[in-house]
Amino acid sequence: MAIPDITDTEKWIVTTTLRERFGRDVPFDVGDAEIRLNASDRELSNCPVVHWQAEDGCHFVVMKTGERSYRCQFFYRVHRQFGTGVYEYDDLTECVVSLLQAQADHAAEERGDLPSKRR
Questions:
Q1: Looking at residue 119, what is its pLDDT?
Q2: What is the C-alpha separation between 29 and 62, in angstroms, rounded?
């Protein structure tokens, strides 16, 4: 099953959402990544991705896993990846906003501004 490329509309959604959050244009890259679409898959599937990096060194990745299907994560180092707690989104705006909020909450926890959810 071929996954459609990131469309111009999807790029516009990412651009607009990041501009609203940061008050300026945030450059991002569009590329591909190989992931397991299902935990039981033996083979990797090629998925289009959007990637950007924040000034604090945090990387954000949104993976397109199908028509109107998106997964996301953020990380500071490759071996420590974080998500939103939602496996897959059918709305790109909700995916990006939730990802940004999850990272903001994580950063606040690390600074001690919020109680840690980890036990």
A1: 43
A2: 11
Q: Is 86 inside a domain boundary?
A: yes
**HSE toward the beta carbon, residue 115, CA cutoff 13 A:** 2
Are 69 and 4 contacting, i.e. CB atoms less than 8 angstroms apart?
A: no
Residue 32, strand partner residues: 48
19: containing domain: 8-33+45-111
Look up residue 65 and give its two tokens: 């896993």
For residue 88, being part of any structural domain is answered with yes
Residues of the chain with pLDDT below 50 are 119
CA-only gyration radius of the chain, Å: 15
Total domain count for the chain?
Answer: 1
Residue among 103, 108, 68 nearest 85 (CA): 103
Q: What's the predicted TM-score (pTM) here?
A: 0.88
Question: What does the block give as tokens for 108?
Answer: 């606040």
How many Å apart are CA 79 and CA 84, to the nearest integer? 17
